[in-house]
Specification:
There is one protein chain. The chain has 364 residues and is mostly beta strands. The protein folds into three domains: 126 residues, Immunoglobulin-like (Sandwich); 87 residues, Sandwich (Immunoglobulin-like), CATH 2.60.40.10; 123 residues, Immunoglobulins (Immunoglobulin-like), CATH 2.60.40.10. It has no helices and 28 strands. A hairpin with a 4-residue loop joins strand 24 and strand 25. It is rod-shaped.
Length: 364
């Protein structure tokens, strides 16, 4: 339980309303400040302690009011020093005078200190008061309705906005795409609550975009889906030779085959698209040793040079040697089989990050 700063307790008010209260029993007395006397004597009782200030109005510096009702159930008039304890700070005493058989209502006021929870104690009774902190609003997370969309598709960005303060507040929330403001909305949030704002988005160009709002971050891939014709050379930097490379795709998915130099296996030189159940021959392959990669799947993205559904990535363990001595040439045939066959060249599955990057190579 936190204690307010002593210097913040600067005001003590006293408002007394006197009324008669009779027939009250069952309340324990406590020590009065009275002249000792055998009988008759005064008998003080604190019958109630009540917070008058609305809970959502108690913020640092606010005037907090507490009402206390004192009863004198004895036979003599007397005086009681009411000292309200706020956390660990004791407020100056208030002198309360009550006639025999009567009651007096006293209002004690003090200034709220720092945010926190405080215990108020007086005459054996207690109250708990929360001093609310100011509004602190921040966009803390982002969720996208889709993380991969096609060019021209619409999507929603949900921005979750939280107010970690104790009172309601408003703030303008900006949604940014690659650092540039793409939309803004006014968020009004109750203390301790979280709300969701929704921003519509649409992208005309493929690529990867960074979406942000406050502390929230999300990444979006915008793809350009188009199925190339069978035999389409998406990349051709291997020409001016006489050798040939034939691909027979016996699978149910389309395939994309890449040749790269054995000396620079991550640098693609030839990229050829072959549709499911079809075959094609690339001509003009220069002499040299080449590494073979292929990927199969659905929904080809022209921007990234990747399939966006069911993609599998493979590299052949053998290096293909193309040579053309004395008016001859080499023809290598790659069979993409729907099921393994004994004696077929060994293939090794690889991670997508190990597949040559066609976008960087300038594939079209």
């Amino acid at each position: 339980m936190r204690s307010p700063v002593t210097s913040a307790l600067i005001t003590v008010l006293l408002v007394a309303v006197v009324g008669l209260v009779t027939g009250c029993t069952g309340l324990a007395p406590f020590n009065p400040r009275a002249t000792p006397s055998p009988t008759p004597a005064a008998a003080f009782v604190l019958s109630s302690l009540e917070l008058l200030t609305e809970a959502d109005e108690i913020v640092p510096g606010a005037n907090v009011q507490v009402a206390a009702v004192f009863e004198n159930r004895g036979d003599l008039p007397s005086v009681y020093d009411a000292e309200l304890l706020v956390g660990r700070t004791r407020l100056p005493a208030i002198e309360v005078r009550v006639q025999p058989g009567e009651a007096e209502r006293v209002v004690i006021a003090f200034e709220a200190g720092d945010p926190g929870t405080y215990r108020l104690a007086l005459g054996g009774q207690q109250l708990v008061v929360d001093v609310l902190g100011p509004a602190h609003i921040v966009a803390e997370s982002i969720a996208l309705s889709a993380y991969t969309v096609e060019t021209g598709d619409e999507l929603l960005a949900q921005v979750n906005v939280r107010n970690s303060g104790g009172v309601a507040g408003s703030q303008t929330i900006e949604l940014r795409v690659d650092g540039k403001v793409a939309g803004e909305q006014e968020a009004t949030v109750e203390g301790g609550a979280t709300i969701a704002l929704y921003f519509p988005l649409e992208f005309r160009r493929p690529g990867t975009y960074n979406i942000s709002a406050g502390d929230g971050r999300a990444s979006l891939d915008v793809v350009d889906i188009a199925r190339p014709s069978s035999g389409k050379l998406v990349l051709d930097r291997i020409g001016r030779g006489v050798n040939r490379f034939r691909v027979e795709n016996d699978r149910s998915d389309d395939a994309f085959v890449v040749l790269a130099s054995s000396r620079e296996p991550n640098r693609p030189l030839l990229g050829m698209y072959v549709r499911a159940g079809q075959k094609h021959t690339a001509r003009g392959i220069r002499d040299g040793n080449y590494v073979v990669y292929y990927t199969v799947g659905k929904r080809w993205d022209r921007y990234s040079g990747r399939f966006t559904e069911g993609a599998m990535f493979v590299r052949y363990s053998s290096v293909l040697d193309f040579s053309s001595p004395a008016r001859s040439y080499t023809v290598w045939t790659l069979e993409l089989l729907s099921s393994p066959r004994v004696g077929a060249p060994q293939s090794v599955p690889i991670n997508p990050s190990q597949f040559p990057n066609l976008a960087r190579a300038g594939a079209r």
